[in-house]
Structure formats: C-alpha cells, structure tokens
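Exercise: predict the fold of this chain.
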Amino acid sequence: MSVFTVHTESGPLKVRPRRLPVDLTVTMATHGTVRLTGVARFFPADTVHLERSTAVIGDGCVLRQEEHFHFHHVEVSFDRLVESPEALDALRVALAEPGDSRHTRHFRDAVRGLCAPPPEPETDNQARLRVRQPVSVTTRASAVVLGEGTRVTRKVEFISELTTIDAVELLARDSGLVNAFLDHLTSVDLASREPLTSLFAAAAGQVEDLELIRGAQDLRDPGTSVFRAVGHEVVSDAVGVLLGTGNRLDRSLEVRRPDVYGLAPSQGLEVVTEVAEHAAELAELQRAVAEQAVDEPEPEPEPHRRGYDFDFSFGF
C-alpha cells in the first residue's frame, strides 16, 4: 500500500492509509436461521456473491424489514405432559384427592420442571460479518439497490395453517389455569371436551407473538446461508442484505391471530382423559364403600353376664 508524506510545522509526516472494514449484514425472518458454513475466516473476504437475495449496497442506508405472519388454526397439545412419568403421577395424585392444595402445588411444580429455559433475546436470524475494502460484488440477487443514504422497505409474508402450543407452557405460567384444569377433570362430564377446549383456548389466546411463531408447524424456511470460501462470502436466499458502513436494519413484526383454537387430537389428550376417568371411577368406588358401611347395622355386642361362674362338680 502506498505511503504518503504530509508536511506539517513539525516536519514531514509519513502516512500509510488504512482501509476500514465494511459491514455485511445478512438477515432472515424471525422464525429462521442464518447458517454459516465453509472455511474458518482469519482475514476478511474481499468478494461478496449474492444469490436470490434482496440487497442494499451503500453507506448510511436503512433497510426496513416488515414481517407479516398469518395463523389459521392453533391447537393445544398435552403430549409433553403425559410423556413425563413424574408429571403424570402428580396428576393422578391431585385427581385422587381433589382440593388438596399440597397435591395441586406438587403437580404445578412437576409441570414447571418440564419447561425449557426462555430463549435468549439475541436470535440467530441475523449475521453480521466484516469484509475488506474495496469489496467486489457479484450478484444473481432478486433485487439490488445502490446508493448512499438509501431507504428500502422489504415486506415478507408467511402463512401457517397449523400452530401447536404446549399445554405444559400454559399450565406452568398460570396457577389459576392449573386449578381450573384439575377442577374440570374432577367435576365435569369428561364425555364433552368443549369446556376443556374453551379453557385452554382462552389461555392460548394470551400467548406472545414469538411463541405463536415458534409453534408453527409449516412455516417455510428459505434456508438462508453464508458460505465462506477463500476470499469470498457467498450469500444465498437472504430476506435482506446490507453492505456498507453506517447502515441500519429496522425490523417490524405483524401477527394476524387465528379465529380457531382447539385441542390437538393426539395421544396426550387421550391419556389425560383416561387418567381422569380412572380417578372418577376410583372416587365413585370409595363413595360406594363408605355408603355401604353407613347402611349396615353395627353388630350387637354379646350380653355380659354378671357374677361369677362356679364349678360344682365333684369327683369321688
């Protein structure tokens, strides 16, 4: 690299220009992952190749990424609840002695023990890399916008026909739901699932947008990736790409919630129903035994004879 001489009052000063690195930001939608593959990078690449991506190239640019999610149907699943022997045993005990706060608390604690720790705020749906300046760009991108200070809006839409919410997550965060769930299983006709559906539909309607997105079973993942070859960064299927210095990415999220909530017709719901029916049969048997014990007359005590018994037999 060339060395320049700058003349100052103190004498000549040799200056070696230093090229500042350029930021390469690659984004995916909220539910996806930017995958980094290829060789380890010890020095910044000097070439970026864009495949099937929307890119904004320039300094001081703003890319606004608007994500729209539409959910058509949400189901609550009991599968994880019944897959835990501890939680299932705690449910049996709580149903065997309804109203006992100790057993209710034990069941709630067992459910909470099944919950995974909350995800970290920083997700991997975005990758920020450094490339060398000057950088060469080759592209077969969907769209490329060039210019300093450019503002671009990128709208993406996703539709999910089926989203599954875990009953464990709903029960773990709401003590009132735990009490209502146990009351339903011990006091309502189990042949009708409408009360149970209404109970968990109301709870599922309160979950946050990100939880709905994580529970979607059929959201398309474009497979956004960055392949790191020697001297190259190959970006494929990115929702957005920013290349330059001083750029900013703004995200917005809009979720259209479903009109239909229900219970997943899975093995978990069948097991919960069987446990409740068994507890009801056992309670009915205990009541019948208790009533029979009340109806049966108590045996009369044997008469007690006063005095003493004497033996007047004599032997000669």
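Check your answer against the key: The chain has eight helices and 17 strands.
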